[in-house]
Amino acid sequence: WLKSLDPNHLVTVGEEGFWGPGSPQAQNNPQPSSSEPGWGRGCWAQATGQDFVPNHSIDSIDFAGIHIWPDNWNITEQAFLQRWIDTHMAAARDMNKPLIIEEFGKNV
Length: 108
Hints:
Layout: H1 2-5, H2 43-46, H3 52-56, E1 64-68, H4 78-95, E2 99-104
Parallel strand pairs: 1-2
């Protein structure tokens, strides 16, 4: 419907890029520390209603986008960030869509 109103602009989902609970990539979601009460390992990311591949696979979605908020997600390992980007790049490639890092934030 949106493309029928404006076919000249790119459309994306605008989510952080979390993997849904049924996704084989769900283990790559940000994992809260054990000191965060009320959240099981990975549960909060999966509970947001996002699922990267199904949400971006729709034909009217022009590109895939992710966000990277290491401090908000309580992530300190550089290896996680590399894996986050790599797994999303692979999924975007499989969907034949470009991947854009839409948001990035780091407390300084």
